[in-house]
Automatic annotation (TrEMBL):
Pfam families: FAD_binding_4, MurB_C. The active site is at 166, 238 (proton donor), 334. Residues 18-190 form the FAD-binding PCMH-type domain. HAMAP family: MurB (MF_00037). PROSITE patterns: FAD_PCMH. One of its GO terms (cellular component) is cytosol. The gene is murB. It comes from Caballeronia telluris. Its EC number is 1.3.1.98. This is UDP-N-acetylenolpyruvoylglucosamine reductase.
Length: 338
């Protein structure tokens, strides 16, 4: 059965910035069959399409003159195991944090470093979400996605997803062409902790625990202490990627800025802390209209109330100009801006 088509649908609750924008039409998709049926739905044949999960990685700058697909496909289950790992599947509409907590409750650790990241399971591969020493792609097995033009289901393995740093096939060549319906993760039975990230290590100090639940709890505590709750202060988490520069460029920068915060990469390049760069340019706490840089974490742009997507982009552009002028480093936004 084809899903209902709703006129003039508010997207305020479907983007974590809380922008008061709307879509000309919206459809709630709760099964793979409904997604596949879109290819033959004449009601939307000539309409622009926008796929939304939790809206945690998008900046909506205006009303959308088309149809918004609101992906809410549920379900989570263990679908198999071998001698090395469990295979766990989740519907694209499942809340990411709740799914991570569920895997721990099943005795299958491996995703705990990614706790409290807002959004849905289906959005996680698009962004290749990562935090505290782990990227989702390291635990990924495969996903299933429907091609909108044909209604045909495709299975994508890790290579086909072309994961990069906060990047994937679905943010580039596949953007707008597919709707992810489910994701399968491979969680090793030979679990080893990832607890060396400085903030997590400090949170674990004195507890004497380094099990998966302790790391989960530490990550949640760190994120709550450093990052604003999007339900209280609208935001999309880290707004900029940490830029990677060559070894030569890093040495030049360090000669001018000895205190620059960086992380050496295996190939000799250096990943710079974008928040440090922004803070050094004096942007922490500053605002343009209702859009502001968070006063505790310069990497997060927030909606203090009444901000528009255009104001957020204006603020981001001003920050990029200042960082480029001072450090000769280009910042790239993490969210998709529409």
């Amino acid at each position: 059965m084809l899903p209902s088509l709703v006129d003039h649908y508010s997207l305020r609750s479907h983007n974590t910035f809380g922008f008061d924008v709307s879509a000309r039409y919206a459809m709630k998709l709760e099964s793979e069959a409904q997604v596949a049926a879109l290819a033959r739905d004449e009601r939307i044949a000539n309409l622009a399409r926008l796929v939304l999960g939790g809206g945690s990685n998008v900046v909506l700058t205006r009303d959308f003159d088309g149809v918004a697909f609101l992906v809410g496909i549920p379900g989570k289950r263990v679908i198999g195991e071998d001698g090395d790992a469990y295979l766990v599947e989740a519907g694209a509409g499942e809340n990411w944090h709740d799914f991570v907590a569920w895997t721990l409750a099943q005795g299958m650790p491996g995703l705990e470093n990614l706790a409290l990241i807002p959004g849905t399971v289906g959005a996680a591969p698009i962004q290749n979400i990562g935090a505290y020493g782990l990227e989702m792609g390291e635990r990924f097995e495969r996903l299933r996605a429907i091609e909108l033009a044909t209604g045909v289901a495709h299975d994508f393995d890790r290579d086909a997803c072309a994961f990069g740093y906060r990047d994937s096939f679905f943010k580039r060549a596949g953007r707008g062409r597919f709707v992810i319906t489910s994701v399968v993760f491979r969680l090793s039975k030979a679990w080893t902790p990832r607890a060396d990230y400085a903030d997590v290590a400090r949170a674990l100090e004195g507890s004497g625990k380094r099990d998966a639940q302790a790391i989960f709890d530490a990550v949640v505590a760190v994120r709550r202490a450093k990052l604003p709750d999007w339900t209280v202060l609208g935001n999309a988490g880290s707004f900029f990627k940490n830029p990677v520069v060559s070894a030569e460029a890093f040495e030049t920068l360090r000669s001018r800025e000895p205190g620059v915060v960086s992380y050496r990469q295996p190939d000799g390049s250096a990943k710079l802390a974008a928040g440090w760069l922004i803070d050094r340019c004096g942007w922490k706490g500053r605002s343009i209209g209702g859009a502001a840089v968070h006063d505790r974490q310069a990497l997060v742009l927030v909606n203090r109330g009444g901000a528009t997507g255009a104001q957020v982009l204006e603020l981001a552009a001003a920050i990029r100009r200042d960082v480029l002028a001072r450090f000769d480093v280009e910042l790239e936004a993490e969210p998709v801006c529409l």
